[in-house]
Amino acid sequence: MRSATRRLRSTLSAYGKLFDADAADQLKTELKWLGKVLGKARDAEVLRDRIGELMNEQPDGLVPASAASRINDELETAFNSGYRNMLRSLGTKRYFRLLESLEEFRDEPPTKPRAGKKARPVTAKLAGRAIKRLRRSQKAAAGQTGVEGDRALHQVRKDAKRCAMRPKHWRTSTRNPP
Fold first, then answer.
1. Cα separations (Å) of 113 from 102, 117, 130?
2. What is the mean pLDDT of the chain?
């Protein structure tokens, strides 16, 4: 569900120029909320597993059992809290309004006149913009180090994901993929 939420947001961003900005932005805002709701438990679960693996890789006695237990308990508490919040949120009016909005958007998309044009030229232009953005962030990250380098690399990853989440036909509608 998290992946589907991310893909929907990415698609709305990719094709944002084809839709009414207010409608698309409102839907993206609600999808972002859902992503956060879904992410809390999963993030704690991933962190618990990764830290657990790291602690298990250490020589015996290096990580006190009490510290390992406390870390695991804290992350388990965070997971349980996130999971309960997710279950509550999936039963709220806000969530059901989001589902209704998605269905309305699917059934009667609030498109701009540009959306009626042939797909290949429109998607080629959108793909080109995404690729340019990725190339710019790659160049910006090239000389960065430390915290700024980490931020720049994070931006490159986000831009690369945006390109990767684009429909497959984007790859054939551009001559110079990243």
1. 21, 8, 21
2. 87
